[in-house]
Design a protein that fits this description.
Belongs to the D-isomer specific 2-hydroxyacid dehydrogenase family. It comes from Anisodus acutangulus. InterPro entries: ACT-like_dom_sf (IPR045865), ACT_dom (IPR002912), ASB_dom_sf (IPR029009), D-isomer_2_OHA_DH_cat_dom (IPR006139), D-isomer_DH_CS (IPR029753), D-isomer_DH_CS1 (IPR029752), D-isomer_DH_NAD-bd (IPR006140), NAD(P)-bd_dom_sf (IPR036291). The protein is of the alpha/beta class. Helices cover 36% and strands 22% of the residues. The chain is built from 20 helices and 26 strands. The longest helix is centred in the N-terminal third of the chain and has 27 residues.
Length: 619
């Protein structure tokens, strides 16, 4: 007698089937590719093999069903491996659903040996979940849960390729981290740690440890997300004047807390205390460096409970020695634990703690419950708002949309780099021009990639088809769409994509339309994404490498002048395009470069008399 598939297995089978047959995103993961045309073929083969792998796993699950003594089919419990300590409340929840194996301090070899017997893995920051781990799992592991926010210890690319969902627990630590930030701020201001160490050494140095009051002082909160906003609320209760910088924070949400949103420059220039709550991204890596410290008010005090890498630690030591920074209180470091002989850790004006931001009993229990619920939900086939890799799109949809996916992300990435000022991005409009009927064009993946391009460069949120709309809403970002039918070949799903950002200032005024919106537009040509319009100006450049946009007086010799400046600085030019609205009036020169020009080179470009404005953009 044939065994009957379990409801869970049947649900997953139908999920895959409906996804493939109806071109709807499923509960599995999509694949993001580069702009290389050859990679588009890889998508199809990957997606096909991925679907096959999942189907094989499900078939194995069907066969593995067991019977009790009465011949009734029963489904074996999944096995969850917990490789680092987790709160009991979370463990209890897991044990009610699965067989739980708590094996701590596993070597990489031991982890690879165990993982093929597990359906899920829960880690903190100490376990490295590498490609080798996913290979050793032989397709069995379905979800990896990170008990905390950061997922840099999990190979997301490998997880996606092997069909494994990755979830984290981003909210439970919020209050604990905010409280620790305030604790560091006040203890630093009153020299608590230094005075304590002095007394324990048998000294009584009241005059040496005279502190400063926080009442009436200006606190700049750099990053007004969950933790930053909670720090701001508590600082207001201490009588501080609070300002904040965050390009995505809605001004009305900040005003509700009594906080003024300002530009990065204004924040660091006017603050008495600076509290860091920004993610570590390429854009924020060592953003606090010699140049940044030089712009600060002398005697500023710095608190960091976010990510160590946002500070150039050598530059901070120099700022402390010179007196620009009077004191620093740090919970995070570029390398953890930091070297024992670290000049920063040993500095007499620095208060340090060993990454204790989330270390309260309440936070640990909250994280345990949050990650347990996410993992159990994933094993039950449910979508999770905390998924950090995305559900799979059917192969035929991926194959068709692949170059447009790349285009959508790069347009979002370009658009956000054109924004300046402290008002924050609140409204984005995406316009699709297509010959197809609007009802036959599923733009959810494209919208997700525009959102990804806008949010990811300065956020630690990883955007995918699962969490794109949720993440945008959490950041107060309204993304609307418009579909325009054009007379072109319906063979191609999209003729062009336009991204507009409204109610913001632009660092490149020529990118503004008459309605004041930043606007850029692109097309796919010969399988390669191209930028075709900046504001009202037509251009035609491949979206590869990096980009310099120059607004200039339309006159002979401009290409040569700018090209010579770049050549003298050994900056390789990959392409160049000039677009204009009226002959001999103004033009936009778009220059593709392989390297980022240094400040002196950019200064020379700006000093060319006919260049009215320019901007460097990373793709």
């Amino acid at each position: 007698m044939a065994s009957t598939p379990s409801p869970h297995t049947t649900h997953l089978h139908s999920l895959i089937s409906s996804s493939i047959n109806h071109n709807k995103p499923s509960n599995l993961s999509f694949f993001h590719t580069s702009s290389n045309p050859s990679s588009f073929k890889l998508i199809h083969s990957f997606s096909t093999s991925f679907s096959s792998t999942i189907s094989n796993v499900l078939k194995t699950a069907d066969v593995s069903l067991s019977r009790d003594l009465n011949g009734v089919v029963s489904t074996p419990k999944p096995t969850i491996l917990v490789s680092e300590k987790l709160g009991e409340a979370g463990l209890d929840l897991l044990r009610s659903f699965a067989d739980v194996d708590c094996s701590y301090d596993l070597s990489p070899q031991d982890l690879c040996a165990k993982i093929s017997l597990c359906d899920a893995l829960i880690v903190r920051s100490g376990t490295k979940v590498t490609r080798e781990v996913f290979e050793a799992a032989q397709g069995r592991i379905k979800v990896v849960g990170r008990a905390g926010v950061g997922i840099d210890n999990v190979d997301l690319q490998a997880a996606t390729e092997f069909g494994c969902l990755v979830v984290n627990a981003p909210t439970a630590n919020t209050i604990a981290a905010a409280e620790h930030g305030i604790a560091l701020l006040t203890s630093m201001a009153r020299n608590v740690a230094q005075a304590d160490a002095s007394m324990k050494a048998g000294k009584w140095l009241r005059s040496k440890y005279v502190g400063v009051s926080v009442v009436g002082k200006t606190l700049a909160v750099m990053g007004f997300g969950k933790v930053g906003s909670e720090v701001a609320r508590r600082a207001k209760g201490l009588g501080m004047h609070v300002i904040a910088h965050d390009p995505y924070a809605p001004a009305d949400r900040a005003r509700a807390v009594g906080v003024d949103l300002v530009s990065f420059e204004q924040a660091i220039r006017t603050a008495d205390f600076i509290s860091l709550h920004m993610p570590l991204t390429p854009a924020t890596n060592k953003v606090f460096n010699d140049d940044t410290f030089a712009k600060m008010k002398k005697g500023v005090r710095l608190i960091n409970v976010a990510r160590g890498g946002v500070i150039d630690e050598d530059a901070l030591v120099r700022a402390l020695d010179s007196g620009i920074v009077a004191q620093a209180a740090l919970d995070v470091f570029t390398v953890e634990p930091p070297p024992k002989d670290s000049k920063l850790v040993q500095h007499e004006n620095v208060t340090v703690t060993p990454h204790l931001g989330a270390s309260t009993k309440e936070a640990q229990e909250g994280v345990a419950i949050e990650i347990a619920e996410a993992v159990v939900g994933a094993l039950n086939g449910e979508l999770s708002a905390t998924a950090v890799n995305a559900p799979m799109v059917p192969p035929e949809v991926l194959s068709e949309l692949a170059p447009y996916v790349v285009l959508a992300e790069k347009l979002g990435r370009l658009a956000v780099q054109l924004v300046t000022g402290g008002s924050g991005i609140q409204s984005v409009k995406v316009v699709y021009k297509s010959a197809r009927d609007p009802d036959s064009l599923d733009t959810r993946l494209l919208r997700a990639m525009v959102t990804k391009g806008i949010i990811e460069p300065i956020s630690d949120t990883i955007i995918n088809l699962v969490n794109a709309d949720f993440s945008a809403k959490q950041k107060g970002l309204r993304i609307s769409e418009e579909r325009i039918i054009v007379d072109s070949s319906p063979e191609y799903p999209v003729e062009s994509i336009q991204v507009q950002i409204s109610n913001v200032q632009s660092k490149f005024a020529s990118a503004l339309l008459e309605n004041g919106n930043i606007s850029i537009e692109g097309k796919v040509k010969y399988g390669i994404p191209h930028l075709t319009r900046v504001g009202p100006f037509s251009v035609d450049v491949s979206l590869e490498g990096n980009l310099i946009l120059c607004k200039q007086v339309d006159q002979p010799g401009m290409i040569g002048k700018v090209g010579n400046i770049l050549g003298e600085s050994n900056v390789n030019v990959s392409f160049m395009s000039v677009g204009r609205t009226v002959k001999r009036k103004h033009a936009i020169m778009a220059i593709g470069v392989d390297e980022e020009p240094d400040k002196d080179t950019q200064k020379k470009i700006g000093e060319v008399s006919a260049v009215e404005e320019f901007v460097f953009l990373k793709l």
